[in-house]
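WARN retry 2 of 3 for item q-0093 after timeout on previous attempt; input resubmitted unchanged.
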Amino acid sequence: MDWKALIEKLNKNGIPLPMARDPRTGLGSVSLTLVWISSIYVQLALVGRITNALKGVDIVNALYWFGICASLYYGRSLTKKKDELSISSDSPSDQK
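OK item q-0093 returned
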């Protein structure tokens, strides 16, 4: 298989990545996967801080990264339509 055919196949089908499933939609979510990975990173940083075993993992940076990922996940449901602000996509104005 030549390079161009491989790239066209990947562009057509996409590259499958394991992602956490969003409980609201049932689909894989990149933002939820980032929250999951960053929470594991925070746990590793906490264990490293308590035991002094993982000196390369900084707890401050881990918490910043978790905060950014959590903001991305929870902020994606904020939508603005004209003059109203809807917190979730299940609002009555979306069902019209």
